[in-house]
Amino acid sequence: MGRAYEVRKASIMKTGAAKGKLYSMYAREIYQAAKNGGTELESNYILRRLVDKAKSEQVPADIIKRAIDKVHSGADESYSEARYELFGPSGSTLIVDCLTDNVNRTVSSLRAVVNKAHAKIGAMGSVSYQYDNLCIVGFKGMTDEEAMDTMIEAGLDITDIEYEDGITTIYGDPKDLYDIKNAIIAKLGDITFETDEIAMLPKERITLEGEDLELFKRILTLLDDVEDVNRVYHNVALED
User: Fold this and answer.
1) What's the whole-model pTM score?
2) Of 4, 9, 190, 236, which sits with the fewest C-beta atoms within 10 Å of its C-beta?
3) 73 band by pLDDT with thresholds 50, 70 and 90
4) What is the rounded end-to-end Cα distance, in angstroms, of the chain?
5) What is the mean pLDDT of residues 5-24?
6) What is the average pLDDT score of the chain?
7) How far apart, in whole angstroms, are the C-alpha atoms of residue 224 and residue 69?
């Protein structure tokens, strides 16, 4: 217990440039998912999840539609996923997930970040073993005990469950994301989920202070400016 999932919501972004990056990120992801698995939401689980996520983060419907229509038009763009593992100050670690059409450009951009922020790129697996890959579903309307009973009734084996400030958060295997959501919807009806993610969660969090904290925040800011960066996970406890 006590995972206390921290969400750095892209939807909170205030600047037009930041929103532009968010829209571009989802456009690339949706296009690639539709290209790989087909454009029908019912049969393409990954595409359906991305469209749901994009809508929840207020990505305009025309951007979502254009990304899917691009597949119908015969466009042949190609993006690949890349994961990089970083070491920051005083035991801090980061996992950086990218979607790119130019790996050399992405690596160059990340090297510029680590050089400016005195960080280090680690070998594959040097950081990720300290994280768990989990789905996270947060919602209102049930206590943790009621949610546990619901999962048991649905035959779902979850990893963890929390209840805080009226929100129940369930952690489970990523492949069970839709089964968990469907079990909750069956009990509560068509609800809005507070959290609906698949993420890498650190097994332990650390606290940074002073210059180390400022340096770590600089790393996050610089990564936000890299166009190819989609998601950043880290082990530092930050204030909301």
Assistant:
1) 0.82
2) 190
3) confident
4) 20
5) 58
6) 89
7) 28
